[in-house]
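Translate structure to sequence.
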């Protein structure tokens, strides 16, 4: 009986991940059928390069959702980082890493404030992070006076656009490295287990000896730092800062995490599924662009897919 229960639990945990990777493969084949050449090496490289930016941003969103929250400040952190870096660096390579360090420190402070608001002030995560996002947007507009200036340094452009070792660009390599680290952390460390415990029941986690506020400080700080890094790297891709940078990343990141099998209620899921969720979002975006679908149609398709994935996972888990 015990072995049977353990096997049932393992199936419930693995099924959402297998499902999302299956959907990813089917969508890729469908995209290649509609647009021959989609699965060509050159196109896959282009899609993977664009996927890396959202993938980095989704690291933080995954952690926040695992704790039972949602980060709506993500898009504004990315925008702030992008515009701030462009004006501070303005093509000067010697300033590249010092500006990145400043961005990381600011993002850590943003994350800690979000964590304090969520845990100590009992402000719902959605409200707290949205308010933080609005403040960041205002600060960004004041900083650039409504007209972003400056541009990326040469090393940033090379990271985002040139192949390293003839395989993939630097941003993709950074994403893979960060993905590997976060998967190890979530699955094999006490901190990872604490994240799941807080997401399942924050009060029970606190009574069991877990430092719940510290977990939330770190999670929201990681989320902000990942957003800051994504915005910094996006500058290398676009060359200049734009107020429209990452305009859809709040909803895209939430959609990718949920499609990837992470429960919106927290405590279940992980970044392995999110990777496939990000890929699905990018494949869909590419496919709908080929079909000349309007933005409203894209949002309808994304919403339908999220509901369909949730229904499939819930039905299968009830049967397991």
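Result:
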């Amino acid at each position: 009986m015990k072995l049977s229960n353990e096997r049932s639990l393992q199936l419930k945990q693995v099924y959402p991940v297998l499902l999302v990777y299956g959907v990813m493969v089917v969508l890729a084949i469908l995209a290649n059928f509609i647009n021959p050449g989609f699965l060509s090496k050159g196109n896959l490289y282009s899609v993977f390069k664009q996927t890396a930016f959202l993938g980095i941003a989704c690291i933080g969103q995954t952690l926040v959702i695992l704790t039972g929250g949602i980060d709506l400040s993500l898009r504004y952190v990315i925008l702030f980082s992008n515009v701030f870096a462009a004006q501070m660096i303005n093509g000067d390579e010697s300033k590249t890493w010092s500006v990145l360090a400043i961005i990381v420190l600011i993002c850590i402070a943003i994350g800690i404030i979000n964590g304090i608001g969520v845990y100590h002030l009992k402000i719902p995560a959605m409200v707290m992070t949205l308010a933080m996002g609005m403040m960041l947007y205002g600060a960004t507009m004041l900083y650039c006076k409504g007209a972003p200036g400056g541009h990326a340094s040469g090393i940033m452009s090379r990271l985002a656009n040139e192949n390293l070792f003839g395989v993939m660009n630097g941003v993709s390599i950074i994403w893979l490295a960060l993905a590997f680290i976060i998967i190890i952390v979530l699955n094999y460390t006490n901190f990872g287990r604490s994240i799941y415990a807080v997401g399942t029941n924050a009060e029970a986690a606190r009574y069991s000896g877990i430092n719940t506020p510290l977990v939330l400080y770190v999670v929201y700080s990681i989320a902000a730092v990942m957003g800051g890094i994504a915005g910094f790297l996006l500058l290398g891709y676009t060359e200049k800062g734009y107020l429209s940078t990452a305009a859809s990343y709040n909803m895209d990141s939430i959609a990718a995490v949920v499609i990837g099998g992470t429960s919106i209620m927290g405590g279940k899921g992980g970044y392995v599924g999110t990777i496939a969720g990000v890929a699905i979002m990018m494949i869909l975006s590419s496919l709908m662009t080929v079909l000349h679908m309007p933005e409203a149609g894209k949002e309808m398709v994304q919403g339908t897919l999220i509901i369909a994935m949730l229904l499939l996972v819930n039905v299968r888990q009830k049967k397991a």
